[in-house]
Amino acid sequence: MEKERLSRGIAAVLLCLAFTYIIIDTAGGTGIGWGYRWQRALFQSTERMYLPGAVYAAREENKPAAQWLLEQAFDWIPLVEYLDTKIQYRTVMEDEETIAKILENQANDGHMVDQNGNPVGGTESVEDVVPTPGQPVLDMSIERLRDFDYLLSNFYTVDSSTMIGPEQLNADDLLGRSMKIDTSTQGPKVLVFHTHSQEEFADSTPGDPATSIIGIGEYLVQLLNAKGIGAIHDTGVYDIINGQLDRSNAYENAEASIRPVLEANPTVEVVIDLHRDGVAEGTHLVTEVDGKPTAKIMYFNGLSRTRTNGDIEYLYNPYIQDNLAFSLQMQLASESMYPGFARHIYLRGYRYNLHLMPKSLLIEAGAQTNTVEEMRNAMEVLAETLHQVLM
To answer: How many angstroms separate the CA atoms of 376 and 378, rounded?
Structure first.
């Protein structure tokens, strides 16, 4: 639009000047010769603008056509180049603002808490969270799972900020990718860490990591090791800056620390970022497994894509399909072994460090309304599910 207005303005000025000098030339007087030269120059310029092919054919200099036409365009409207630069600069600035906003959204996404660790928002489930006795097992045959609408509606919740299609949720592809770990080599196979280390539960002891998400992660690591799946636990704190809760760069801080851990432990094949969800105070994410109250869990995928911005290049993840395969295989194993234990897989638009490894999981285990006991019971079920999928 700016280019169009500029071109029209220049054309109007030139036409006014041409009209003025035509009058001078017609009236006679001292301006006759100069007016004639002006008309000739104007006609030549007009010819270059509207009949560039004819002028190029008659030219004497030996230049490529594309270069010659570009020079004529800039001679005719010299401000176009400046306008192009100005528009490009403005776009870059807008992109930087968009990047900052998206990174901020990723940092707070689903885990919005105040200075005291109390949730002020989150990914509250719209599902019924009360276990139903004799709950029927969903049809998980490959024939049914090949139906995109069936798969999406029964196993996924897609956030309104993003989108997904049948080319990504292809059951044959996702179930055909092996999630088995290499048991022929020694060394740890699973790394558990926590981007948000300060998450606590209904009866946590304030300041005691053993009753926070850190302690729950430690229990999961112990259970995995007991099952023969070598696991290690990173207890780094990535959401406290200068003594204050600050999650604005938690994912970036976590990645900077986790990468050296992976380099030091090349046998690790599975990376799990274990979180606790934030829900309304009246919501209790609990079911019953083997007679024990057990916190529900939710597998969480980032698609690096939003409806507003499309694919987010600076949050590129080459492992999105592997991530989706891992979460779906975990979801199906959970539903088969412990119906009602896993909530729908949640799909959102950002990345959440799931690009660290093909077999990467972000797990929302319970919420602030669950007890520590319910969380520990959930880790027992989760460890058994991981054993089923990985071994």
So the answer is: 5
DSSP assignment string, 164-226: --TTTS-HHHHHHS-----TTS-S--EEEE-SSTT---TTPPTT-GGGSHHHHHHHHHHHHHH
Distance between CA 102 and CA 83 in Å, rounded? Answer: 28
Give per-residue pLDDT as tens, 327-354: 999 999 999 999 999 999 999 999 999 9
Q: How far apart are the first and last CA of the chain?
A: 61
Q: Are 334 and 342 in contact (CB under 8 A)?
A: yes
The DSSP annotation for 308-347 comes to TTEE-GGG--TTHHHHHHHHHHHHHHHHHHSTTSB-PEEE
The identity of residue 190, as a single letter, is V
pTM of the model: 0.71
Contacts 24+ apart (CB under 8 A), 245-250: 245/113, 245/115, 245/117, 245/198, 247/107, 247/108, 247/111, 247/196, 248/104, 248/107, 248/108, 249/107, 250/107, 250/195, 250/196
Tell me the Ramachandran region of residue 304: left when phi exceeds 0, alpha when psi lies from -120 to 50, beta otherwise: left
Long-range CB contacts (within 8 A, 24+) of 169-174 = 169/324, 171/142, 171/145, 171/146, 171/328, 172/142, 172/146, 173/321, 173/325, 174/321, 174/324, 174/325, 174/328, 174/329
Q: Which residues touch 49 (CB under 8 Å, ≥6 apart)?
A: 72, 76
pLDDT in tens, 364-375: 999 999 999 999
CA separation, residue 165 to residues 16, 151, 169, 311 (Å): 57, 11, 6, 13
Rounded to a whole number of angstroms, the CA Rg of the chain reads 32
Looking at residues 78-83, what average pLDDT do you find? Answer: 42
CA dist., res. 115 & res. 280, Å (int): 17
Domains of the chain: 2-77 (no CATH), 95-390 (3.40.630.40)
Query: pLDDT tens digits for 105-114?
Result: 666 555 443 3
